[in-house]
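User: Predict structure, ligand zinc ion.
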Amino acid sequence: MNVILCAGGHYMLPAVQEVERRLGEAKCAICKQSSFGIDQRFMQADGEWRGVCKKCFYSFPVYTDMEFYLRTQPDIPYRLREISCTACKHRGVSLDFRATMSVRESIYFVTCGGCKRQFTEKSSLEAFE
Ligand SMILES: [Zn+2]
Ligand SMILES: [Zn+2]
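Assistant: Predicted complex:
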């Protein structure tokens, strides 16, 4: 079942298929393949999902509630404004969801505010905390 839309409708979590497709832009931390699924048994109401590598079954957390994340991590919006699109050079992206591929590798899945191109940005933020 695909639910998850609050009454106001101001924020919607991304669709599972969309997240699975975009995870393909990343590489598995273990086997380096790029074929992932979302394990829907572990989808939590707070937006924490679980991505699974289809090759080696390595699993990792995927966070889809970015509204909450941005509210609790006030420095992130500033960093997002600094990211520039490699296609159109526009500065400033929106954060769609993120995945923690390993303790050292957090990946942001972002959309360019200019040309709407979707791409990934590796975050090393956690490493400095
Ligand atoms: Zn793998
Ligand atoms: Zn762009």
